[in-house]
Design a protein that fits this description.
Radius of gyration: 18 Å
Strand content: under 5%
Largest sheet: none
Shape: globular
Distance between the termini: 34 Å
Order of helices and strands: HHHHHHHHHHHHH
CATH class of the largest domain: Mainly Alpha
CATH topology of the largest domain: Hypothetical protein af1432
Number of domains: 2
CATH architecture of the largest domain: Orthogonal Bundle
Length: 263
């Protein structure tokens, strides 16, 4: 993939997203701007991640194209359904791939690169990577899942700090503001698994779900990035001081202090 190809793809993304971001519908414009900013941040995270792995230029470009289009479906999803919740509308990764195909966006890429881009996008938001993924399909999917999670951490903490309940409701469901924790959520930490969104009842459960992502980060760089930005400490400091949460704190601290504890 040439540098000129990536420049063309970036220009296409700018043109595609502009009508959503400049819409007279304030909610659509605001949400689209948020997703646009998120996309650029994920591209930035991807650049840092691929640099940490010393990937060849062509591999870096392909990874950044995946980052550029990973959330493409969000724009049309919100326009049609007024929500960012896949459970309440459609799978935004499938919608994004459909948009790429409809507009023939990837026509300059070879068939194998198109397959990698589409498969990575389709799996970036799933609870787990499909078992049949291997080789480059698996590797690039791991890259986008890490880069995406790292910026969602930033977005969620910003929303949480500003108590943006409307955005939380659009992205997930209306969450209880009480100081409770669902025991089912804590059970996921006992099993070292990602917390499932359907178990969220409160803002605290949401914070714990974000923390559970440490079990799914694939690269040492990602764990260091999580640790160095103090994302975990912010989330933990806003949880009740209960035995269950103390155990979570210990687990997360061990993983971030020594990535060998990740497995």
């Amino acid at each position: 993939m040439t540098e000129n190809t990536t420049t063309n793809l970036k220009s296409w993304f700018e043109e595609y997203s502009r009508p959503y971001r400049s819409s007279d519908n304030n909610a659509l414009a605001k949400t689209s701007e948020l997703k646009y900013d998120h996309t650029l941040q994920v591209v930035g995270e991807m650049e840092l991640l691929t640099h940490s792995l010393s990937l060849a230029d062509d591999a870096c470009r392909l990874a950044c194209v995946i980052a550029l289009f990973h959330d493409l479906g969000r724009f049309e999803q919100f326009r049609k359904y007024n929500t960012l919740s896949d459970r309440m509308s459609v799978d935004h990764s499938e919608l994004g791939v459909s948009e790429l195909r409809r507009h023939k966006v990837l026509c300059e890429l070879d068939d194998e690169s198109v397959r990698i881009v589409e498969d990575a996008i389709l799996a970036h938001n799933k609870l787990a990577i499909p078992g049949e993924y291997n080789g480059d399909r698996l590797f690039y999917t791991q890259l986008i899942r890490d880069a995406d999670k790292l910026d969602i951490l930033r977005v969620f903490i910003d929303v949480d700090q500003n108590n943006d309940r409307e955005m939380l409701k659009k992205a997930y469901v209306e969450l209880d503001e009480s100081d409770t924790v669902n025991p089912e959520v804590l059970a996921f930490f006992e099993r070292r698994e990602l917390v499932r969104i359907e178990h969220l009842r409160s803002r605290n459960d949401m914070r714990l779900m974000i923390l559970s992502w440490v079990f799914d980060l694939n690269f040492a760089h990602s764990l260091r990035r999580f640790r160095d930005r103090v994302d975990a400490e912010y989330l933990l400091s806003h949880l009740p001081d209960t035995p269950g949460v103390q155990h979570v704190r210990q687990q997360v601290s061990q993983i971030l202090t020594d990535p060998k504890n990740h497995g």
